[in-house]
ABC transporter substrate-binding protein (Pyrodictium delaneyi), 569 residues
Amino acid sequence: MIIAGLVVLLAIVGVAFLLRGGEKPSAPAETITPQTTSPAETSPTTTQAVSEKPRLTGNIEQDVVSIGNYLASMGIHEAKYTVWAAGDPNSVLRTLAIVEAAYRLNKILEQHGVDFKITVEQKFKRGGGDQLAEDFAAAFQSQANPDIMANSYKHIARFADEGYLLDITQYLETYQDFLNDFYQSLLGAVRYKGKYYGVPQDTEARPLYWRTDVAACIKEKTGEDILAGLAEKIQKGEVTWHDIYRYAKLAVETGCSEWGVLHRKGSAHPDLIQFIYAFGGKLSDPKTGKLVLDVPAVYKWLYVEWKMARDKLIPEDMMSWDWGKQIHPSTVSGKTLIWIGGTWHWTEWQTKPYYTDPQTGEQRPLTAEEVKKYFYYTLFAAGDPGNEPVTLSQPFVWMIASNAGKDNPKYDELRDVYQMLAFLLVVKASDPDLNAIHSIISAHLPVRKAAEQLISDKAWVEKLANLEIELSPEVKNAIADIVKATVNEINIEFLASASKMLAYTHLTPMHPQYPQLASIFADAVDKVLRGEMTPEEAVNYIISKIKADPELAKAVEIQGEVPKDWQFP
């Protein structure tokens, strides 16, 4: 029977062989052993079919599931990303929102039974974004850069030209509804040479803050109420920097404050750049696409700084003061009449212990009630009569590195898939509730219409105040103290009021050489404050620095002359 069975089997095999034209039967499927090069990578099993390579559809749930399934089918069950950001102490959602985005996308993946997850490593740096930008550029050379960075839009032009940023134009065209919810005026901050290289994260206005107690002291000693109708007078151009000089002098000469005006340290961008616009100047020529050194406006700006420093109304070493030890403590303690600041300072003063309590001698933050009591705010005043008041916005934006996802398995093969996933992280991090939370706790202005609607929803704001909102435990714990200190009616009212200033806002040029020009401005400001140069010498110094750099010389048009008949104050 056994022999008969073998004969039958051989006959069947022989027939099959003839029917296949003599072709040998297929070998058994090869058993693939998982590789150990990465904990995130395992080889697909013999029963796992490789999915079709995904494409974005504009539906984030569908897209993340498609990407997750595809990578899982390739034996990859985890993708890792890094995000860097800089800012004031309350702007932690510039990184944490990406962490939250991963949490939310992972929940979607889990609900659909996809064996794939996203992890995010974040680094938030206190301070401005210029150093972070340099760190990013240096890290890119060794492929150690983050996948996503939140920084000033001013860096986009340079980084796009150098190939550091991902062109996300096609992605955003697919996510048109998402794009349309952003305020259109802000989209220019992420568009360069007709392409999109980022997504707006926040924006702000830069008011003049006036100490009400110093103003009350001036009124008591001189009879002049400088705050009476001041916001409206500045808005109408009736109060200019000529008047502000006089008010600052009154404050110091009467002993009501130690200083008349304090401003940022280190750089001229963006706070001090407002002087150029306030004196009717410009920074670029849309016809030529070049930067502009507007000599009359820059001269007047430098003259105001020089004159105030000579009259002891502003510190000669202002550009080297320490933020936490000198600038903010002096401002919140009433040692200056005017602070040239930003909307975010309104809540920063409520969370950082800059103020020394006169009763206890202990350092503590101000309460919301104290900030409202002691600070009156206005637009940045016009330079001369006939000029217009201004403010300046510096939107922070999320930029995706052109090598996003580089630290993940099979990157060369799956680069475009990892890039799409990085984009989805940014989309999810821009959820209206996350944008609204960031706006409230950091006093930045929302960039999405849906976020603004949430901020005006009292019931939602109350839930936020009680942390009764859907957030990952990690993010909720990280922002709990800031939420407790900042989510209140006073700050919501401030946001609504400050948002109106955007009607007067300017954006600095989207040009790769602009940061370099702004750095030269900062040097010039420092020199005139210290009395090392006169304003005219400082203008000539700026011109010489421009001409000494061939690339900068090509990029900058020098327009106008130092005004000979202008007087200040």
Q: What stands out?
A: The chain is about 45% helix and 15% strand. The CA atoms of residues 2 and 8 lie 10 Å apart. The two ends are 119 Å apart (CA to CA).
